[in-house]
Specification:
Elements lengths: L3 E5 L3 H12 L3 E6 L2 H7 L5 E4 L5 H6 L7 E4 L5 H14 L3 E5 L3 H9 L4 E3 L1 H14 L3 E6 L4 E7 L9 H4 L1 H5 L2 E7 L2 E3 L13 E7 H11 L1
Parallel strand pairs: 1-2, 1-4, 2-3, 4-5, 5-6
Antiparallel strand pairs: 7-8, 8-11, 9-10, 9-11
The structure holds adenosine-5'-diphosphate.
GO biological process, one term: potassium ion transport
Organism: Thalassobacillus cyri
Protein name: Trk system potassium uptake protein TrkA
Amino acid sequence: MNKIYAVIGLGRFGGSICKTLSKEGYEVLAIDQSEDIVNEYMNIASHAVIADATDKKTLIALGFRNVDHAIVAIGDDIQSSLLATVILKEIGVKKVTTKAISDYHEVILNRIGADIVVQPERDMGKRVANKIISSSVLDYIELSDEYSVVEIVIGREMVGQSLDDLDVRSNFGINILAIKRDKEINISPEPDKLLTEGDVMVLVGADKDIKRFRNHML
Ligand code: ADP
């Protein structure tokens, strides 16, 4: 059975989530308290409804009990964001992802039972900063405070070496998930295959170890 998603608050963040999920073919129940905004999503989401997400009865009447994953993307109104999150968990929505606008907001959301909390500006800021620090880093995904997945262009001195030669697992405690070459991605790179210029490594490891590895490459 296909998952049912709900997006609450159709500003830039919620709107973008709603458009992406809908484009991927998922059923999305989109709500916002503003009529003008909801009108924009009539032809995008499976159901777009004008509603106040802090009203439990309304959410139940809209069928939120059947929602598998709800995304609360209410902007600056912290009170509504908290209340909507609590109500969704009370109703029994399995997974609730809520956007926080500050660290305090995030702490409270975690306390009241939000399953996932995101701070889009902060998270994207970190990602962009990590790309900026090193021109060799193509992409960066934070797995936790300590661990990340990083896409990195291999250093010149690695050209002609094999993964066995580099042995990043014992030398740096890092795992290589894949090697990208041109448009091809090899998700089980052979240990004896030689690296060539422009190869991109997808690594997973502790941030401190990835940093050590990057410094070593420079
Ligand atoms: P962004 O920074 O992602 O653009 P906005 O603050 O512009 O966020 O958007 C938040 C949206 O959430 C607005 O469209 C607003 O109408 C909606 N919203 C705020 N409170 C509620 C609520 N209680 N119920 C439903 N929608 C709400």
